[in-house]
Amino acid sequence: MAVNTEQRTLRRVVWSLWFLVGALAIAAVALYLATRGADEAAAPVVPISTEAAATWAAMRKPAPAFSLRDEEGRSFSLESLRGKPVVVTFIDPLCRDYCPTEARRLTDASAALPPGQRPTIVAVSVNPYGNAHHVLRQDRAKWKLGPNWKWGVADERTLADVWKAYHIDVLVQTKKIAGIEVHQIGHTEAAYVIDSSGHQRALFLWPYDTTGVVRTLRGLSTAS
Asked: How do the domains of the chain map onto residue ranges?
């Protein structure tokens, strides 16, 4: 019962924060439109957070287990990554806007740390239609993902279990364009920082910058 209550509480926190981010973004756009000149182009402004949306004390909240495959088809589990921090994020391999930007932020956060303190970054796919080997390899090269990055893919049912365990909502809309079936993916953009013992320590909701992620990871190194 306590676990279910905690999960419901976290879900309420996540959606409340997303609602707040959306409301602030709308307010910022409205203010800009009200004050800009008539000939200026509109430019939406979204506040970027430097703080975690949620944090947990050491040994407080075990991260949900999972077993996935990387882009080379090699199996790995969260447990197999014990011994160093892990960042678990959720990315659409076919996305060409927010997901690549989030990937760059996490890459920058990792690069700000000494090599021995850099986390393993697991990018769990939220798009079962975009998990082809060549797509994942292309993203690794185009997005300049470092050797500490791992794609996490699987069949849709297995991925859905991981999404649910980490409170990630995924919406798939399918339509045909010129006779071609196209899948549009909407999803919660979030990154969890997990310590070397496999416990959740922080949750970052997009949009966030590198500051809070780096501070959290450095804190884990100091505590260990």
From this structure: 1-47, 48-223
